[in-house]
Amino acid sequence: MVMGQDESLRVDLYPSGALARGENRGKMTSLSPNERDLIRALIDAFRSPQLSLSSEQIAARGVRFVEELAAAGSDRVDQIRLTLAVLDATLNFIDRSDRAAVRGRLTELENGSGAFGLLPRVARDLARFAQRLAFILIYGTLDSSNRPPAGLALGYEIFPDRPRGQLATVPAEPLLSRKILVGPDAPLPDHVFDAVVIGSGSGGAVVTRRLVEDHGMDVALLEAGDYVPEGGPSVGPHGERRPVPWDEIETLARYYKHGGLQLTLGHAMFVFQGQCLGGSSVVNNAVCFRMPDRVRARWRDEFGVPWTGAELDRAYDRIARDVGIGGVDQAVLSGFLNPTGQFLRSGAVKLGVGGNLRPCDVNLSHDPACLGCGYCNMVCAYLRKNSVLQTMLPAAAKSAKAGRGRLTIFTGRQAVRLCGTMRRGSFEAEGVVLRARTQRFPEETLRARKVVVSAGAIGSSAILERTPFVNALGLPLGKRFSFNFGSPVHADYDGEIRAFDGLQIAHYYRPETDDGFVIETWFNPPATQTLALPGWMDDLQRNVDRYCHYACAAPLVGATSKSWVDAHWIGDGEDIHVELEPADFERLRSGLLTTCDLFFHSDPPPRRVLIGALDGWELTAANYKDRIARLSSFDQIQIGTGHPQGGNCLAARPGPAGDAAVVAPDFRVHGTRGVFVADASVFPTSLGVNPHWTVMAIADLASAAIAAS
């Protein structure tokens, strides 16, 4: 099929999103008139008066986003409403129709005052929340032609308006049959499965395929998100269609956990995770790394993990064949890699380290080749990315149809805890207690002889913590949580770079001395990119206005394993507590310095470089070393992650801190029978690189142990 410009723009953008399709069964939570008026006032404070969309139109999109998030069952809406309530109090006695007055009060907050006794840091956080909310709505709201007017004003083009986008072909999508899909309104079967797998992302999908295809098992796959096809022209079994791929707001609501608003405690940062059939595999950048040698050695020597050598490499190879992992320069149409790579390369050559910049390995289709549309995190509507939704799950369904095992997929169902009995001092699994994602009650039980927890580092830790018998075993559940974190660096060039017109992440730089970080090229469509740019109000707007002139990269650092996950016992939420060490900051600062070195030595050099600092964010060739040296804590710099890891430490013996392991090398939870974990939560330490390929590889290893147990 050919998706031409006019045809692609006729894809339905449902005016009320998921609610209009009747997919969400939760009670609608409407924002109050005062909350709606507050959102409009915040939009008006940051919106350019020249923008064709009015503040009312943009605010209406924001209200709909929050209300749909509530209807989808997210508990983060309560936090949003609490923040809005505090902002509302700070704007008391202000005429909210007076743009200058609202801007003035918000600027007072940004300066640490005007918040009626709140700490200066809290006041500033409020102001930054208001700014982030306003900018993502301003640049993410589409007009009647399904285009983002604010983004177009920057020189951005949606993909169908680019020459190659007008002729882009979309392969047929391997849609899953209605026969194996069970929605949240359908009754649970009176049946005992061989195994239930919780989570359909990189780990859960691989385990599911292997158990069905290789071992002939009867498997139930449980996913909290919905099944939404990836391809723009595709229609799901119940009429589901994906939003247009450049609709950043709708994509966050449809494919991301908590709509992308999952925030940590301690050091605040957003944690982006997919919540849909296929999990984060659907919304990641297709970048694939094997476990670095230094991490393999540490897992082997400090934690006694026996399979980090040839056995793990064989698993990597099997996954590479299944999802088509190969070099990015062979997988993408010529000339449409992120152009940032050429600037980093010229800087590396000038510094004498040209060999340190390498093309990434990616799970992208070679035929047809990746188009470099730049929507990797918006879901690959052109079906070039070989997510597990396009590879592992259809393969499992095909095997089941051929009689090699059985597969049933439950969507829109949230796992709350495991159920089972204590026998001779061990917890023996009997199934999973679950509920519809959008409803608190009733809870039901899906019965199985074995349970495989693959809900991700955060979700898996919380599910095990909420299971009373497992919690009573005294295991360090949720501990040794870690992540890879990064901080964006924007190099501003005189000429237009148009980094949006190419694969988002295409190259990485690793220092010869392996200083604990890698640098990745990186870029996003306008709304998401505004969240990464520094500055307050008019300064931020001026920085956003240079959108087409930026090359962008970010140092990626593996955090030490000092953070933890706490499960909520009422409901099914969790808190993510982040604790970082001075060594983490030093690695980040070293990564920022190296990134700036590469950019300022590029040919041509940039006019300036922007880092994600709250203050002193504009760097020049003359001052960047001194400015970066002045950074002294994480309070001064913006970081984020999409790579949560750890929480259920896998080890053959206690770790270096004396903590007992949660998971044995055969992926069984200690003190249990029939309970296994197969996802990034078992990582004893952060990898320091994208964990996607490694998650799939360890799930491949786990499947054999699960089947044999």
Describe this protein's structure:
- The structure is a single chain.
- This protein is of the alpha/beta class and 709 residues long.
- It is built from 22 helices and 24 strands.
- Strands 1, 2, 3, 9, 10, 11, 12, 23 and 24 form a 9-stranded mixed sheet that branches.
- Strand 15 and strand 16 form a beta hairpin.
- Helix 3 packs across helix 7 and helix 20 packs antiparallel against helix 21.
- The chain is globular.
- The N terminus is likely disordered.
Compact description:
This protein is an alpha/beta fold and 709 residues long.
Secondary structure layout plus pairing:
Layout: H1 5-8, H2 17-20, H3 33-46, H4 55-71, H5 76-90, H6 99-110, H7 120-140, H8 149-152, E1 181-182, E2 192-198, H9 202-213, E3 218-222, H10 248-255, E4 265-266, E5 287-288, H11 293-303, H12 310-323, E6 325-327, H13 328-331, H14 340-350, E7 357-359, E8 361-363, H15 392-401, E9 406-410, E10 413-423, E11 426-436, E12 444-453, H16 456-465, H17 468-471, E13 479-486, E14 489-492, E15 507-509, E16 517-521, H18 526-530, H19 538-544, E17 550-558, E18 564-567, E19 574-578, H20 582-600, E20 608-611, E21 618-619, H21 624-630, E22 640-647, E23 672-673, E24 675-677, H22 692-708
